[in-house]
Write a structure and sequence with these properties.
The chain has 15 helices and 16 strands. By secondary structure, the protein is of the alpha/beta class.
Length: 401
């Protein structure tokens, strides 16, 4: 039987809740021996504050670093490989991780920078995976995911969070060969020793970055990723059997998802259950806008979603639609190209749509980032450009490379 604990954070006392959670699953000394190297791997997909439910609260990671040192660790690293197109070191700085790491004498590591090709003979869709050497060589790996939804995998918890140890080229490949199974293959190649889920602020809706924050004030912990993810699903009022990545991982023997096979400690499940709004998979989430998605990685998917969310929040998306009428935004490989006889304005986004750049307006990048997507929309609508002098020049320069 696997043990999972649910701890409530009282009046902002994050470290105390983390300590109780780790104690409930054996204490840090169960995982960390004297002199070992510990890697703490939070979900830092991009430079959006933990208060948005997008990234891990640094207070959770700091508490884990203190516990690792107290257990006798010889070295404590904090690392992630942020999303495709993101600069992990800039993400560290923007989220205050550099200051936090200094306080707890830990070293920050960009896991995108030292890939090693790892054979995965039991992999179904991935036979070789470029995984960070730092992650592979750590004596103890502590996985710190978020409690949030995901527009491509329904939820993103500990199994999905391991994607951050994979180099960008491997992250992209995972989307083309079958994302859920690729995540399972990855988790068969490298496993965390301890999972501590940051549920201080979760995220619902169109996660992993464009959803809405949900204050939960919870810490969830366990040693088995499938069991932890199954319990987190239950907290979010999601049946884990309906989440392919979790059910596939359970079928692969990585852990149990039935509550009958899990020992629950801490808070009663029913006392913390809060239904999360699941991501909308419909292709028209905004009035006057159609999203036409092909095989897209979470880079383009996330930046398109964030670009539209931010413009909707400040009212500019309404202005764009009013000025130009219906717009189709096309991204990802093999996305169906809109009928050229249509009067709709088409915006083609990202390198995968480079071949369509003569059919309408093309935004470059792998991934295309939201400031340029937003400026392209503003330019189409005759609104002032805010981010660069001429985004179309950037597109021309990108195309010439």
């Amino acid at each position: 039987m696997e043990t999972v604990t649910i701890q409530r954070i009282q009046e902002g006392q994050v470290e105390q809740a983390v300590r109780r959670a780790v104690a409930d699953v054996g204490g840090m000394s169960r995982y960390v021996a004297s002199g070992v190297r510990v890697l703490i791997k939070p979900n830092l997909i991009c430079a959006r504050s933990w208060r948005t439910g997008t990234t891990v609260n640094p207070a959770v990671v700091e508490a884990l670093a203190h516990l690792a040192w107290e257990a006798g660790a010889g070295d404590v690293l904090i690392g992630d490989g942020s999303g495709v197109g993101e600069d992990t070191n800039e993400v560290f700085k923007a989220l205050g991780y550099d200051e936090m790491a200094h306080r707890c004498a830990a070293r920050l590591v960009d896991l995108n920078q030292d890939p090693v090709e790892v054979d995965c003979p039991t992999g179904v869709v991935l036979k070789r995976i470029p995984i960070s050497r730092t992650a592979l060589e750590a004596d103890v790996l502590i996985n710190v995911p978020m409690l949030k939804t995901h527009c491509q995998t329904i939820v993103t918890l500990s199994l999905k969070n391991m994607k951050g140890v994979v180099h960008s080229r491997g992250k992209r490949k995972a989307h083309f060969v079958g994302l859920e199974q690729a995540i399972v293959d990855l988790n068969r190649a490298i496993a965390p020793h301890l999972i501590v889920v940051d549920g201080t602020v979760g995220q619902e809706g169109r996660g992993p970055a464009a959803g809405d924050a949900v204050e939960m004030n919870l810490i969830i912990a366990g040693a088995n990723r499938v069991a932890v993810d199954a319990v987190c699903c239950q907290i979010m009022d999601v049946d884990p059997e309906t989440v392919p990545v979790i059910s596939l991982a359970s079928e692969a023997g990585l852990g149990p998802l039935a509550l009958e096979e899990i020992v629950l400690k801490g808070q009663e499940l029913e006392s913390v259950r809060r239904p999360f709004e699941l991501p909308s998979f419909e292709m028209n989430p905004y009035e006057g806008v159609s999203l036409i998605e092909g095989i897209a990685c979470s880079g383009c998917t996330g930046h398109v979603a964030l670009a539209l969310k931010e413009m909707e929040e400040d009212g500019q998306l309404t202005e764009v639609v009013k000025a130009i009428g219906h717009i189709s935004i096309v991204y990802g490989a093999d996305a169906p190209v809109p009928d050229t006889r249509s009067e709709d304005v088409c915006l083609y986004v990202g390198t995968c749509q480079r071949k369509s750049k003569n059919l309408g307006v093309w935004v470059p990048g792998c991934p295309a980032i939201e400031p340029i997507i937003q400026d392209a929309l503003r330019d189409l609508a005759g609104l002032p450009i805010q981010n660069i002098d001429n985004w179309s020049v950037a597109a021309d320069e990108f195309a010439s490379k």
